[in-house]
Structures are given as C-alpha cells and as structure tokens.
Amino acid sequence: MLQLFTIRRVKKATHQTVRLLIMVAITFFGLLFITFLIGRVVPIDPVLAVVGDKASPEVYQQARLAMGLDLPVWRQFFIYMGSVLHGDLGTSVLTAKPVLQDILRVFPATLELAVIATCIGIFVGIPLGVFSAVKRGSFLDHITRVIGLLGYSLPIFWLGLLALIVFYAKLDLLPGPGRIDVFYEDIVDPVTGIMLIDCIIAREWDIFWNALAHIIMPATLLGYYSMAYLSRMTRSFMIEQLRQEYILTARVKGVAEWRVIWGHALGNCAIPLITVVALSFGTLLEGSVLTETVFAWPGLGLYLTKSLLNADMNSVLGSTIVVGTIFLGVNLFSDFLYKVLDPRAR
Amino acid sequence: MNDSGHLLDVKDLTVSFPSPRGEVCAVKNVSFSLGHEKIGIVGESGSGKSVTGRAILRLLPPYAHIHATAITFQEKDLLSFSEQEMRRIRGRQISMVMQDPKYSLNPVRTVGEQIREAYTIHRKVPRRQARQQTLEMLTAVRIRNPEQVYRLYPHEVSGGMGQRIMIAMMLIPEPSLLIADEPTSALDVTVQLQVLAILDDLVTQRGMGLIFISHDLELVASFCDRIIIMYGGRIMEVVDAANLHQSTHPYTRGLLNCLPRIDGDKGKLSTLQRDASWLDADFSATAGGK
Amino acid sequence: MSSTRRWQHWLLSDSPASPFQAAAGRTYLGLAEFLKNRLAVFGLLIIAALILIAFFAPYIAPCDPLVTNLVNRLQPLSAAHYFGTDEVGRDIFSRIVWGSRLTLYVIGLVAIIAAPVGIIIGTVSGYFGGLIDTILMRITDIFLAFPKLILALAFVAALGPGIENAVIAIAITSWPPYARIARGETITIRNGDFIKAIRLQGAGPIRIITGHIMPLCISSLIVRITLDMAGIILTAAGLGFLGLGAQPPSPEWGAMTSTGRAYIIDHWWLITMPGTAIFVVSLAFNLLGDGLREVLDPKSDN
C-alpha cells in the first residue's frame, strides 16, 4: 500500500512539475510579448536614439536594416525573443554598456535591501500577527492593526523623506542618502556586489560600520511595509487555523498552549505564508524603486528611474524583464516549496 | 453494572454564552455522576450535550461562562485547578474523541507523529520507545499495517481508519475517562459498528469510564449502561439502558416514537412534541447515581 | 409601541411578508453594522469631504494654485498661507485643495476603465468556460505575475509621462484581480437553477451575462475596488513623485512632494502637507473598504 502511495506521489509530482513549467514558460512568453509591444509603441525612434539626429539618411537606413526594423513584426518578435533568451537585452543609451551588464552591477544593492527587509518582515511581522490572532482585541492586536493600516496607507517615498528629515537632518543619528560616505567609495573590491559582505571579505571594518549605518533607514523602511503585510496576513491565517477542530484535539491531548499555537496552528499557516512571503518579496522590488530614489541607493530601482527619465528604452525594458523574471522565479520557488511542504499537495 | 467507585461527579453545571440578545444558557443545572461505566448523553442538536462534555475538560472558548457547585474527578476538584494543572488532566486522565477525523486531525503532520505526541506529552520516554508504543496502540485499534499507517497523513486515510487513529491517540496515555462526542456520526454506516466495537472493547478492557454523546437513542441504548436524556440544556431524565422502553417521561417517549421500526406499523411517524414546562422542572435531583 | 420601535420590528421580522421587506431588513442590518464600525464611518466622512472639497475647490482655495509669487517664496505656515508657500511662492493650501480634483480624477478614471474590463473578461471567462476561459485566464495571470508598479512604469515609459498616461498605465495593471473575482462569482452563479430557468425562456448568453450575472458580481467587486483605491492613489502619487505622472506645475500631491524634496532640510512643510493629504485619503479608503468588507463579506476576518 505504501509503495502504491509512493508511486502515486512521484507520478503526481512529475505531472504537476511539468504543468507548472509550462505555465511559467507561457507567462514568460507573455512578459516578453508585453515588453516587445511596449518597445514598439514608444514614440521615440529607436534608430535615431542609436545614430543620433545628425546622421545622414544613408547611415540611418543602414542602422535601420541592421536593427531588423524592415522585417515583419512577428519576425522582429522572434528575433527579440531569441536575443533576450541569449541574455542580450540591448545596449543602454545612457551608459553605452550592455543592459544586462548594467543590471548585474546594480542588482546586488537592491538584493541587499530586499533581503534585509524581508527578514524584518518575517521575524517581526509573523510573530506580531500570531500574537494578535491569539489575543484578539488586545492592545497588541490594535497596534498590529494600526501598523497594517499605516503600511497600506502611507506613501513609501514620503515616509522615507520624513525619516531623512528626522534621523538625518534634525537628530543627525544616521547618515544621509547613498550607500556609503563619499570618501569611502571605490575602496572595497566588489566581490559579491553586496557591500556588507564585501567589507567583511576585505576586513574593512570602518567601511562596514559606515555601510551598515547607511542601510538602516532604507532597509527598515522597506521592512516596515513587509512587516505590515505579513503581520496582517499571518493574523488572518492564524485566526482561521485556531478555529479548526484539530486545535481542540491538541488541547484535549494536553499539549501546552504555546505548542498548540506555535507548533500546530502556525505549522498549518506556514504553507500559505510561504506564498505570501514570496509575494511580499516581489512587492519589495516594487517599493525599492521609490525607496532607492529617495535614498539615492544605487540599485536596480534607481537605475530604472534614471533610464525612464532619459527615455533609455533598452534599459527600461531590460529592467522590466529582469524584475519580472525574478518575480516569476520567486513565485515558482514558492510553489515548489508549497508542494514539498504540504502533504496534501504532494 | 460495574459501578466501582465514583470517577466523575458533576453538580449543578451551568454554561452560558453571551449573545447580542443577552446571555444564552446552553447548559443549565446539570448534575450527574459516573463510575467505571458507560454512560450515554442523548439529545437533539442544541440540547447542550457537547457543551457538557467540553465543560468538563474546561475546553470551551474563553467567553463562555461556566458555573458549577462542583466538578469532581477522582476526588479532585477540577474547578479549582489552574490551567497548567488542567493540562495534566487532559489526555492523561480525561480524553475526548470528536466527531469527524477529517477535521480533528492535524492535516500537515503524520498520523504517527500525532499519536506519539499524545504519549510523549505525559511521559518522558525515548523516541524509539514512544514510537513502539504508538505502533502497539495502532495494532490495538485493529490497524493491520501500523508501520505503514504511521507514516500516512490524515488525508490519506479513510474516515473509519481516521476515527480509529483518533481513538488510538486518545487512549494511548491511558486515561481513566473518555468522552466520545458523536464519534461515529460522520462515518459510513458500514464502518460505524466496527469503530464502536473497537471503542467498546478497549474501554471495557481498560476498565475506563465512558461518556458517549450522541443523538442516536437506539445506538446509545445498545451500547451504554445508563442514558442521560437532555433537552434545552437540562437533563430530562436518567434511565438504565435496559429500562429505556419502560420510560414514562413524555420527552423520552416522544424520542422513541419518532424512530422508524421495521416490524412496527407502517403508519405516519409521529413528530416530536416539546413542552416548555420541561425546562422549568428540576430533574437533576433524580440524576445522581443509582 | 413607538413608531421607531414598530419600524425596527417590521425591519427585523423573522418572516418578512414581501421581498421588499426582506431586502429592507437586510439593508437595515448591514447599515446598522456599518454604522457601528466608527472607523469605517470616519473613512466615509473623509471621502465625502474630499469630494466636496474637489467640487467647491474654487470657493475654498484662497489663491490660484498656479500663480507664482517669488517675493513670497518658502513662507512658513501663517494665517495668510495656512500650509505655507512653496519654492516659487504658490499657496500650498490652495494647491492641495485643487489637487484633490486630480486625485479624484485618477481614481475615478481607473475605476471606470479597469472595473468594466475586469468584469467583462471575468464573467465571459466564467460563463463560457473551456478554451475561452483558459486563454483569458492565462492572459490575466500574465498581468498578475508582475509587480504592478514596474509594469505601470514600463507602460508610462512607452506612452510618455503625464496624468492621462499614468491613469491608463494604472488601469492596465489593475483589472486582473477584478477579472478573477468576477470569474469566481460567475462560476458559482452559472449553474444556479434560476440561470437555467432564464436559459429555458430563451435568453441568450449576452442577456444572461449582462442582465443576471453581472449585477450579482457587483457587491464583491465594490469591496475590492474600494480597498484598491488606496493602492491606486499611492501608485499615482508614486508616479508623480518619480516625475512620470502629472507634470509640474499641476498641483498633483505626489509631484508636489517631489519638488519639495530639494527643500526638506529647512522647509519641512513643502513635503509634509501634500504627503499628509495622500496619506489621509488613502487611509480613508482603507478604513471604508475594511468596513464594507465586514458588512458585505462576513466570512473574512480581517
């Protein structure tokens, strides 16, 4: 009987994995199609952007042919798809470098922020949600509700600016915008691109503390939003689970209350929470666009904004594809974890 | 029958819940006592039978108001117990099997883990020994392949097997009283009797007390020594199972008359007549012991 | 029995005599519950105030929101300028009052564009099922699979900055959840006996969808849209802040915050006032949405 179950599980898992991969492929295809369309409707002439508006008609025509703009649209799309799949996102007009290279350079800074923020969300938001679900209507529950409401209502860029006024301008507790003080720049060798880790590798402790002080404000800001979202979701999942009858069973068995809550109930919430954490990670990438602009944080968000303001379409679409792909990857990973952790989905 | 000494004494138990229209009394002045015997509590839905069971374990939601002159279990006053002391009673001394194994088992833990947990909470034993004990308990509820079932998740077992697993989980710490709250109502008719037989055997073997809560009067009569009949949160009467059909209480008679009979006349089944005055009468005085 | 008591009795009757009485009773209970939720009422009041302010902006605002006055620049709060003046001497209070029109314009247009698109795609997809459903839902999933703001940014990049383009970009990224909700509702309604009865009477799919299914999807969509309003306001303000939404000198709150950035050290009111306005309005929509959800969707517990 067990063998039968195992075979069935393996078969089901393979089937589901294949299905999931097809879905992801279709979605990725859709993403490319959308970015391609956006690229086509841009009022900027892509040829002029490359050759400059002083180019002669011959040069212009040559560039046009070289870019494949005389081909039918569907062929252009396949050429586009082929080059994206080969990692060719075009060249940035602004930096004159391949877009992918630019993105790989700036992305670690965003990753650094998003990871710290997610950690804040998980380690503060989830316990907060659990406590307020257990003690509904308590003071702590009201606090959680207020945190959630503010997180859903405060413009992130504005809160960032207020934080800068208070902690940098007035109190002078924390350093201002930027990833590091100017005179420390370019000292540490970017091995991983993640400043804090690079400093540890280079054993530059002064710079490490400086970088840490710089990251506190933007990371906490993003972390706050992640926390608001996670605490609210955790609370409603926990309320749902605590109502279930297996909770009563655990109590009948004589299980201590903390184990009923943190073991049985949260154990059942863990599975949907994975999806929520993945979603919140995607939202952080989004929030980082505004946060990085406020804190002059040289990550993907700031790169995207700069490209937007300079009508650097290759960089804009390249960043969109990269963010979309990461988002897709994170979702895929959470689906995978879901399948592994939930015995019912196996 | 085998009434050797008192196990549980409930005196004047009253449970009420707040509602927008004021306090609603779910159980009122219920008193009964129980030895090492099987006692059934029968009533329609909303008669307060489940609430009574849960009140004994003190597992009602915190907004419920529980009052009683005394709830004494093996000479210990449960009302004076702290929550922590209560936890040592739950599972170890008094256990409860609930209606539907589909909901009462934790969906993300294996069956074995859950039974083992019930054992290790009350006994500090090595993991291996707890596992061995679990497997033995699974055998005791007539599961033929305990090693394999140990590793299954609740959604992978049938309803009947799920309820046997529930029984195993509740009996593994060897409690002296089991409350079975509609343990067979969610099961297929064909497996109901199997599960009941297992429950009966284990309870009798171990000389435990059993409170069997059900809406099924015939079932309870065939299974228990005594029957408490509840209506509207009150005890209507307490009868020996053997004398059930001689009962003269109008409500009991009403319940009996509603049951279809294969051998009886094929006329219309009578509907249950309820009398508001029953709720005022005080039957609890007659409800203690025999 | 006083007349109010009699009314209450009629409304709360366990056995209503007419469908009208039942509907009135239900509305009464819903309204009573909504009014008990003081925060939701508070949210509703703020939104009502916003609408009034936008409507009467010319009478409320003491100054023209666009007229500059360099002599009076960067004035702190005073009786003449309640919220001070900005870097070119415009009255911030008047700008915020006029800006309320832009806010309403954005959320109104987004709702008008996104809700019908979502409801049509959702009901069609749910009613017909099969291949149509698969294709439409796949498209919906593609849109749902990406962070909203990033996609909106890419669209704005293509369309060019400006408040109309910001509205289009936000609308394009807002409809998928509505389609999902409408589809879910349609699937539950589709197999109802009353739909079968209507079909037997010879009604075609278009009539069934527009006449009988769509009206039943409305209430859950209203809750969702109200809750989304806050997000739409924040996204629009974010686009304005990045310089991709409404363009200066228009008094859009996000763009005002953006220009105020250069003066945050000594002239805090330049960013504080428009930011507070954004916050208060989106908070109001969140409060109202939560209240509506509790009344219209009692299952959820949030």
Structural class assignment of chain A: mainly alpha
Summarize the helix and strand pattern of chain C as letters: HHHHHHHHHHHH
Q: In CATH terms, what is the architecture of the largest domain in chain A?
A: Orthogonal Bundle
Average pLDDT figure of chain C: 86
Total count of strands of chain A: 0
Fourth-level CATH superfamily of the domain at 38-54 and 102-242 and 272-300 in chain C = MetI-like
In helices, the fraction of residues of chain C equals over 70%
Head-to-tail CA distance between termini of chain A = 16 Å
Q: Which quaternary structure do these chains form?
A: heterotrimer
Largest interface: A-C, 54 and 46 residues
Overall body shape of chain A: globular
Helix content of chain A: over 70%
| CATH evolutionary superfamily of the largest domain in chain A | MetI-like
C-alpha-based Rg of chain C, rounded: 23 Å
Your description of this structure?
- The complex is a heterotrimer of chains A (346), B (290) and C (302).
- With 346 residues, chain A is an all-alpha fold.
- Chain A has helices at 2-41, 46-51, 57-66, 73-85, 99-134, 139-153, 156-170, 195-202, 205-242, 245-253, 257-294, 300-309, 313-341.
- In chain A, helix 11 (257-294) packs antiparallel against helix 13.
- Chain B has a domain at 1-83 and 212-290: Rossmann fold.
- Chain B has ten helices and eleven strands.
- In chain B, the strands form two sheets. Chain B has a six-stranded mixed sheet with strand order 7-8-9-3-10-11, with helices on both faces.
- In chain B, strand 10 (226-231) and strand 11 form a beta hairpin.
- Chain C contains twelve helices and no strands.
- Chains A and C meet through helix 1, helix 6, helix 7, helix 9 and helix 11 of A and helix 6, helix 7, helix 10 and helix 12 of C.
Short description, anyone?
The complex is a heterotrimer of chains A (346), B (290) and C (302). With 290 residues, chain B is of the alpha/beta class.
